């Protein structure tokens, strides 16, 4: 295992310990020292990998943006002709492929919604994913403004679907809600 892989593994170990604590006791009740103790690292080492508790809480979503871009690259047949459809399909495939994470995502989504400092970071997360997706669409030949619009539609739809999913406490599958939100945009031609 190279140095970068070891660092990523340690970041994941810290984040997983923190998520368990956050979900059990709440974000504000957990200290950095408690996270470090459960993760088996020093406070100083924890801060080597994360600047704040908020960074730890949002860490588990960092890979989603690159995964969405990978979905675009893997299914890039008509990106230039139908960027909105390509962006929507990428998000739907991503959600469909991560069923095993939906319960943790629901719990973390509720934690984020109920924690003001995390809500702000959550908004930044969606903007970051939108930018990554727009860049990938543009790189594949979509006109810049259309690439940005397609990414904005896809990520705004995801954000709204997640809010609805949280509101219904997961009683409806997120994939079904997402497809319902996206339905008016399916096969839209720009």
UniProtKB/TrEMBL annotation:
Top-level taxon in the UniProt lineage: Bacteria
Keyword DNA-binding in annotation: yes
DNA-binding region, residues: 31-50
Sorted UniProt keywords: DNA-binding, Transcription, Transcription regulation
Keyword hit for Transcription: yes
Endpoints of the signal sequence: none
HTH tetR-type domain span: 8-68
Name this polypeptide is given: TetR/AcrR family transcriptional regulator
Species, as recorded: Chryseobacterium kimseyorum
